[in-house]
Amino acid sequence: MANVSISNDNFSDFQGDHFHLEGYERSELVINGVEGPWFEHEDCADIDSLYSICGLNNEENTSNEQVRTNLLEDQQQRISDWTQNHFPTNMVIPVQIQSSIKAPKNDDFQPQLPEPGNSSNEKPKPFSLASLDILNNYGRLSKKSSEENLSTNALSCEACIGNSHKLSMEELLRAAGERYVQYSTQRVDGLSMFIHAYGSALSGLCMEETRDMELVHLLLTAAEQVSNQQFHLASKLISRCMWVASDIGNPVQRLCFYFAKALEERIDRSTGRYTCTDEDRHLKYIKTMSLGTNSAFLTCHQVIPFNQVMQFAGIQTIVENVRSAKKIHLIDFNIRSGIQWTVLIQALAEKGDSQIELLKITAVGSTEKENFEVTSNTLHSFAKSLGLPFSFDLVFVSDMKDFKKESVNIKSDETVAVYCNSMLRTMLPRPDCLDNLMKAVRSIGPTIIVVGEVEANHNSPSFLNRFIETLFFYGAFFDCFEDCMDRGSPCRTTIEGVYFGEGIRNIVAAEGEERFTRNVKLEVWRAFFARFGMVEEELSESAWYQANLILKQFAQGSSCDIQKDGKGLIIGWKGTPIHSLSIWKFL
After folding, report:
1. Half-sphere exposure of 78 toward its Cβ, with a 13 Å CA cutoff?
2. Which CATH number do you get for residue 337?
3. At 168, phi and psi to the nearest 5?
4. Cys staple from 252: which of 212, 329, 336, 553, with CB 3.0 to 4.6 Å?
5. What is the pTM of this model?
6. For residue 183, is it left (φ>0), alpha (ψ between -120 and 50) or beta?
7. What confidence score (pLDDT) does residue 299 get?
């Protein structure tokens, strides 16, 4: 699909009191060679049926104002009817989103690591109330009272009118989600919401926000139709979405571009048209993610605060737990570029209370051995410049299920620390492999284990729930990149296209063992670690201080949230959780 250059003309069919489908010629709806997908309807009766859904007759000369009034009254009645059918008569549900309503308990949030299943037998379901609750209540970092949530976080189409501040990505997604809920009741063919006057009556939003909300609304509709296996209609909705979305546009357009592509692939998989090999894509993805030595990742490390905040807090914890050791052995299961350990090397070199005899770092990996040479040389050179005795080992295992205590050269006089950053999640599709790793780590007997993970629920067996969770999560990242990088940045293009795009594609399009991108929240990891006799340690005040100190050094640091979760730390972007950091010891 060619990239669409966005202008007011591109959205002319969005404006006014309804979609002005009538009177367009095909030549007027072609942008960069891309034909408007509504004109896949060869029969004019299809267009007429759209008007008839809302009582519009092409032969009548009803004024726009009267049409608008009639449609608004009709929409209000539909919302009222839906509310009465789904909630008790004594339950008051205001128009704005109920941020304080608790999401219902369901299997998606059980504190365990579910076996990777194949959902091919899962019956397609409509957009369930549980899914709508996720839309309304997507986990925010700040735990506010119901009254505060309603007054500060809850958004609605009605509340947005007259609002002059620019919406964050999360706010826009919430507003679009509520708008979708309002329009998704009593549809005839999945298209009727697009000619509703209320949708374009958000006069309080700027033009770009209104267009973005329409685009997200369209994407949610396409996702529901894919879930219901209505692939013909879903393809038309996705085509319409791709006509507006763009991988070089604003954050919402970029976000919707990759989600629409993922939905296209899910349809291809379901209809037997998918020809790629998941194993090859998985290996390429793992290799790319495990290195982090290319310029795009290093630039991202410098301008995006998440990694540095987590790393400095984790390193501070390690320093505190090995302060009396002469020989320190650090085992890193996802070392990537290793740039984070320059901080540890400097901290140990500056210790005045004891003399460090040796710092040994062992990198455990399953990618090509030669890729770690740059990391080894960099750390050796830095340690030598500071006069710190240093050694670097590499443990190469083709499969993590083969890792064992004997794989690592550990001396009896070494104090061992283990660092797992965004690595355990890669084994969620293979619970046996994860169990083996934890048993091996236990046998090593580390003094401290630092675990950094993605704070999101991308392991739900429900496609729609997983879709919404993923939409909010990656939406925060696209919003962050918009604030921290130029739109034309090669680094941004690489990270969004390779890292985000592949993650979205796999979570949305794949099922069963083919879905290797899985994340679970800290509460799930806690239940899992308890099985191996692990106890969580309190993050120290010094670690919190380091996290906040690093955050202040970023120009957009004020948009990051650092919150305490039990004994651990969660960092997010404008309220959306992104990463968790927790500290563990074996009993």
Report:
1. 19
2. 3.40.50.150
3. -75, 170
4. 212
5. 0.75
6. alpha
7. 85
